[in-house]
Amino acid sequence: MTSRCFVFAMLAALASGSLAATAAGAPAMAQQPNYARTDNNPRLADIMEAARVRHLKLWFAGKAGNWDLAAYEANQIKARLEDAASLYQSLPLSDVTAMAAPIDALAAAIAAKSPAKFTAAFDHLTAGCNACHQNNERSFIAIRQPTSQPFSNQVFEGKR
């Protein structure tokens, strides 16, 4: 996947909070880029919500040392970002290089099975997402390291 695709996808996350932002006094949607649904494509906000869920699950997989699950979730994030980039080609290219380094660092940390490198790479990825949001008038969408595990029906520890 190209760096351009990652930027497209990360920028897609920007669309997911538009209605809440208007309600909170943020600029009206008419003043912000329009990433409206086209044809039968899934809504951009829905694609990015799927990526956010994978981001959360990635964290718990990595913290549990389940590197196979972490790699799977990282690949799912990558796939959601690729979906957004291919379906919403009008997304701006302003942050093309912003996500390449965090994604590469995350893949390397998972391959190394290093908890310390994983945490640093995860934080780098998260910062890249937030920077993309800020650069594209979506600073009201901010993500962070998860603080609680909402998936009580999934085992993150893996087989030992």
Automatic annotation (TrEMBL):
SUPFAM superfamilies named among the record's database cross-references: Cytochromes
Signal peptide span: 1-20
Organism annotation: Rhodopseudomonas rhenobacensis
InterPro entries (UniProt xref): Cyt_c/b562
Classification of source organism: Bacteria, Pseudomonadati, Pseudomonadota, Alphaproteobacteria, Hyphomicrobiales
Keywords, alphabetical: Signal
Repressor listed as a keyword: no
GO BP terms, alphabetized: electron transport chain
GO MF term set: electron transfer activity; heme binding; iron ion binding
Protein name per Swiss-Prot or TrEMBL: Cytochrome c
Keyword Signal among record annotations: yes
